[in-house]
Amino acid sequence: MCGRFTMNASELEILQSFDLEGELISFEPRYNIAPGQKVLAIIHDGEKKRAGFLRWGLVPFWAKDPKIGYKMINARSESAHEKPSFKGLMASKRCLIVADSFYEWQKNEQGKQPKRIALTDRKLFAFAGLWDKWDNEGERLFTCTILTKQANDFMRPIHDRMPVILPKEKEDQWIEPMKRKPTEVHEFLTNLSIENLEAYNVSNYVNSAKNEGVQCIEPLIDE
């Protein structure tokens, strides 16, 4: 799964990296983004790309209770095209979720060691995401989920799942404003290449979603 990530970049870096216009309202760098919090996402509205904030944890439009979002922070890319909660979104509500690294916890003899994982060749990247709008008696939520896949050779010793990271040249294609068959989207995800990753240990400070700041990403120095 993908349950925590970072977005440690300047507004200008994000605008330039994703070829966006305007400004990012209420933007600030983040070092410990957790489910239920706002994430920076990019969609295409048919005329241009737009960036804004979605709540992490998908609440489908048909849900009776928005708390379901805490159970839907991730969607398996291998089966999302078949699931009622996701297949309609695969067809027409795809988004980019901006990040510069993610965390995973590797089991060891002492328990679990948090690791920060990033791409080796570029700083900013995008997870493949799905989004939806939930509207109930005047309460409106815009939420999202991150697609995941089986771990590659690098990630497998750390965890058996990993987020789907879109190659740079595939980002705009992912959010093209056209309706697709969910099976076509599944094939698109299946054929994505995986870029090189790097990882290092960080402090247990990151374990609590309440903790924020550069301390979350500082390399752990063995004593």
TrEMBL record:
Q: Which InterPro entries match?
A: SRAP (IPR003738), SRAP-like (IPR036590)
Q: Which UniProt keywords apply?
A: Covalent protein-DNA linkage, DNA damage, DNA-binding, Hydrolase, Lyase, Protease
- Is Chloroplast there in the keyword field? no
Highest taxon of the source?
Answer: Bacteria
Its EC number(s): 3.4.-.-
User: How far does the signal peptide extend, from start to end residue?
Assistant: none
According to its UniProt record, which protein family does this protein belong to?
Belongs to the SOS response-associated peptidase family.
Q: What is the recorded name of this protein?
A: Abasic site processing protein
Provenance organism = Aquibacillus albus
